[in-house]
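User: For my dataset I need records formatted as: sequence, then structure tokens, nothing else. Please produce one.
Assistant:
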Amino acid sequence: MARVHFTSQLERFTEAAVVTAPGETVAEIMAIVFVRHPVLKSYVVDDQGAVRRHVQIFVDGGQIKDRAKLTDPVNEATEIYVFQALSGGTGRPSGS
């Protein structure tokens, strides 16, 4: 089964540090993850199912290509990493 890892900001909504799920595409894997942990869905994808602007998904070290439908292929050994970018601040070092 593919293994899905979340940043610490998102991990707080799961019961485990890593979620495993079967599937042949990122969409199939994430659908199972969202059934098990429904609150994650609104943080990761929009109401059309596309990856949100400030979220990045990596499959085996590379960014997914299909952010709209999540059709990137996976296999049983796939490692998926879901990152939520943090924003805010002035972009200047403190004390500037």
